[in-house]
Design goal:
By secondary structure, the protein is of the alpha+beta class. It has two domains: 98 residues, Winged helix-like DNA-binding domain superfamily/Winged helix DNA-binding domain (Arc Repressor Mutant, subunit A, Orthogonal Bundle), CATH 1.10.10.10; 40 residues, no CATH class. The chain is 38% helix and 22% strand. The chain is built from four helices and seven strands. A three-stranded antiparallel β-sheet has the order 5-6-7, with no helix packed on it. A hairpin with a 5-residue loop joins strand 1 and strand 2. The radius of gyration is 20 Å and the shape is globular. The termini are far apart.
């Protein structure tokens, strides 16, 4: 007899202030890569994104923040480079702290679902997989419009809700 499968709950974290855009894990990873390499070009290469994508993310983050998060120095005899501001380092530290607590919460909830099989929708069936060809019937419950992306909540019934993030650009 196979042991019961453990419920694993995953989630992504983004920080958003009302009326402002959001900081996502990808943005934080870019800031960390810049801090590590001292270069936007090297950070972009390490992350597998183009320089333009990295630069666009930096511009977005700088525009979201009261003070710039990334400062560049022009090349020359000393070669130039890119560095994080103190504000960027604070945002990284706070994001990582919140991310750690978020991970603990998801693990705790997964454990609670394992102990209460009546709540766990995956206890007897496979996991729902969706693709562009699937159609789920539901009713739009909420739309939260942001400057960069919007979140659309769809109520599928039986207390099941799906939240989709759609980028405007």
């Amino acid at each position: 007899m196979n042991p019961p499968k453990k419920t694993i709950i995953t989630g992504t974290l983004s920080l958003q202030s009302e009326g402002f855009g959001q900081f996502s894990e990808q943005q934080i990873l870019l800031l960390q890569a810049i801090n590590l390499t001292g270069s936007i070009t090297k950070a972009a290469k390490n992350m597998g994104i183009s320089y333009k994508t990295a630069w666009d993310r930096i511009e977005t983050m700088n525009n979201l923040s009261i003070t710039p998060l990334v400062k560049r120095s022009a090349g020359g005899a000393k070669g130039g480079g890119t560095a994080l501001t103190e504000k960027a380092e604070q945002i990284i530290a706070e994001f990582l702290q919140i991310q750690q607590e978020h991970s603990k919460l998801l693990q705790r909830i997964g454990g609670e679902l394992d102990s209460n099989k009546t709540i766990n929708p995956n206890s007897s069936k496979g996991v729902l997989q969706s693709s562009a060809r699937n159609q789920l019937r539901g009713q739009i419950a909420d739309i939260v419009a942001g400057k960069i992306d919007s979140e659309i909540s769809i109520n599928l019934g039986n207390s099941i809700e799906i939240v989709a993030t759609i980028t405007k650009y």
